[in-house]
Amino acid sequence: MRDLKLTFVLPNLSIGGAELHFLNLANYYSGSFKKINVLYFLENDNGDYKKKFDRSISFNKINSKGFIGSIFSYSKYFNERTPDIILVSMYMDAVSLIVARLLSDHKPKIIINGSAHFSSLIKNSENKVIRFLLKPLAKIFYPLADFFICQSIGLKNDVEDVLKLSPLKLSTIYNAILEKNVDYSTPKNLSHQWFQASSSNSFKLIIAGRLDAQKGIVEFIDIFKKLKKNENIQLLIMGEGDEKQRIEEQIRINYLDNDVEIIPFQNNFHAFIERSDLMVVNSFYEGLNNMIVHALATGTSVISRNCPSGPSEVLEDGKFGRLVALGDDNGMIKMIKDEIRAPAFKKEDLIERSKDFLTEACGEAYKKIFQKCVDQKNN
């Protein structure tokens, strides 16, 4: 791989599932490729995410806006930087990249790393381009991609069913989530008032990740309000995103300001998860959900919606965490109450399960795909 140039394409430089996955892969490959580059549109934080990359990794910002503009920017990048392999996480960006390659003199290999359950994304998206154009565009252009890597078996089954892609170009590889030989379960001191020794002995829930509509956080506030009537609980929401204002409004109108708090994503997020009693995932759909794995690594119990796709695979159909059907709010309430009364899982079992999601295993599996694509004749 040392003679190849690898490019990761991300919409934003900020913390999220796909972003952490690509960060871990990029750092794992540092020194293994001739050049590693990150191509992005926006930097949404104060630079913390960017600082986590190895110093050998370079960054290029795409200044063009819109679908057409991005195509010409990608084409220019291909011809000037001559990357050998492109790894992209977002579905519409994948279409733009494939079209750009058709227009370019330089023809890199393009590998799509699906970041969400494809048909659920289309069904639930408020973006009209994604809702009405993504599927027909994907059917036309995705067969021209060199490979499609799925985060979960559920995502792979969905892509096979909806897009009819060749099985020879499809594979399931779990995300690069955890570092080898790192103990994420060691308790650490936190300055946050809820985790001080003098704080109330409340049962602490945590939701962590991007604040998007798909995560169902606004809807969970209603569930939390019902729980709060009879339980001594607090909810910490850690993340950033477009839904922040709606979540804050829901907290305010339900008079939950003292019991629910939103904080930005933290560099030491594992410490917050480890100190919490329960992680909740209320998503309508996922690709895999990296945060469930992070919770398992800290030994923190998880209750998740059994949404398409990912959570049931990570939790092995309830063996390592509780699963609640979509729409069953009463079931969610009962399971949280049960967890408050008696935790259902042993910490050491959760930690052991998390080891199936090490960066090393993922990185080596991706390398095989990269080599397979490079060995094929150019398009």
Could you characterize the architecture of this molecule?
The structure is a single chain. The chain is an alpha/beta fold. The protein folds into two domains: 5-176 and 358-375, 3-Layer(aba) Sandwich (Rossmann fold), CATH 3.40.50.2000; 193-357, Rossmann fold, CATH 3.40.50.2000. It is built from 15 helices and 13 strands. The protein has helices at residues 17-29, 48-51, 66-81, 91-103, 118-124, 128-141, 153-163, 217-228, 244-253, 269-275, 290-298, 311-314, 329-341, 347-354, 359-375; strands spanning 5-13, 35-43, 58-61, 85-88, 109-113, 147-150, 170-172, 203-208, 233-238, 260-263, 278-281, 301-305, 322-324. The strands form two sheets. Strands 3-2-1-4-5-6-7 form a seven-stranded parallel sheet, with helices on both faces. The protein has a six-stranded parallel sheet with strand order 10-9-8-11-12-13, with helices on both faces. Helix 5 (118-124) packs antiparallel against helix 6 (128-141), helix 8 (217-228) packs across helix 13 (329-341) and helix 11 (290-298) packs across helix 14 (347-354). The two termini are 20 Å apart. The model has no long low-confidence stretch (mean pLDDT 95).
Short characterization:
The protein has 379 residues and is of the alpha/beta class. 42% of the residues lie in helices and 17% in strands.
